Amino acid sequence: MVSLYEAHKKIYPRSVSGLFSKWRWAMVWLTQLVFYGLPWLEWGQRQAVLLDLNARRFYIFNLVLYPQDFIYLTGILVISAFSLFLFTAVAGRLWCGYACPQTVYTEIFLWLEKFTEGDRSARMRRDAGPWNIDKVWRKTAKQVLWVSVALWTGFTFVGYFTPIHELAHEVLQSTLSNWETFWIGFYGFATYGFAGHMREQVCKHMCPYARFQSAMFDKDTLIVTYDKERGEPRGARSKKADLSTLNLGACVDCSLCVQVCPTGIDIRKGLQYECIGCGACADVCDTVMDKVGYPRGLVKYSTENAVNQHWTKAQTLRHVLRPRVLVYVAILGAIVVAMGVSLALRTPFKVDVVRDRGTMARIANGGKVENVFRLQIMNATETSQDFHLAVDGLPGLAVASEEDVAIESTQARWVAVRVQLPFDAAKPGTYPIHFHITAKASAAVVSEKSVFIVPR
After folding, report:
1. 418 and 359 part of one domain
2. What's this model's pTM, rounded to 2 decimal places?
3. Which of 419, 450, 454, 453 has its CA nearest to residue 433?
4. Same domain, 153 and 234
5. 212 or 331, which is more confident?
6. Domain tally for the chain?
7. Ranges 41-50, 222-231, 343-352, 358-367: which has the least confidence
8. Cα distances (angstroms) measured from residue 97 to each of 23, 27, 235, 310
């Protein structure tokens, strides 16, 4: 039988220390402190960040957003997309190597694996050996830690949609709803499966970013690069050996760059789509160069042009700031400024106007023509507000019902509004009018269009 697919071999990444490893762990701590800590942060009398889907309100520190604020979500997605384009054009897969959840949780799970089962060589020997008490308890301890981290991750995720203090109480009382139970289990299972077992398979076969990254690179993009001209031909040698006599390059062919790679590739074969740009191979290669007394940088962040043309660091960085990057920066900056200004000038309430379908137009007491409207006023602040209602568009047009309305904090209220017009003020037909709703405390005004019908 001929197999059409290569058998999958388990990858045992070796631990590495160095500049890029420190940056990677710094991002692990930063991202997880934000993710795990933010739901527990209080803002006034509520959770600082809460996406309350039942009430259709999103609380983000002092902002209260409604579904009508969908434009801000669009802005965040556009900013994220352009940031990804910018970072990729400048330095390749920075997101993948340092901040992607798959990378972050894989690092955490690998650390737990090393804590329970030992370093790379110990794990390989134990997996190849027979089952015994030591192997069972170490494997069991690892699985318990993995499942605990995964479930806590799922719990935290749901804590962004259900107040986390209430969620914790529900967990302790075993009163979780079906949806809460499902999402804690689903997100926890995904974390456990992706970071614990699938690892590099997610980056190789599931993540679309790996497939179209080449379209976002050019010859001036900083990527993890092996200096083939300096390193080849590779081979083992003693520390005191004369390279010119042996006709060897700087690479000692120790294969440590392959052993530390989380996706198991050999960077010496050139850039591959599996490379996530984590810099682990650069860290370990610098360590080897220090030991044999050679200059660092055999594997480093550089560009294709810089390696081929032997540019200095200053020349390389000057070419990184090319027109493509500057265009991305300009567009991204404009979007960020526009979104910031929009949020700063955002009115603290929203209004929707709907005609009362049950009563299109009628003659009221006193011979006036009356139309009935329904106004939904949404208070987007966390204090009670008083609003004044006014209307214009026709001579003598006025609000005949209550003109002042009080709305509780972060609440929405439908208000029936009767608008009257003197009988002879306009000919039969449809006329555009404007409602003006004023928040008394802030003097902010929202105007909404509608139509007034004068019957025949």
Report:
1. yes
2. 0.84
3. 450
4. no
5. 331
6. 3
7. 358-367
8. 10, 10, 29, 26
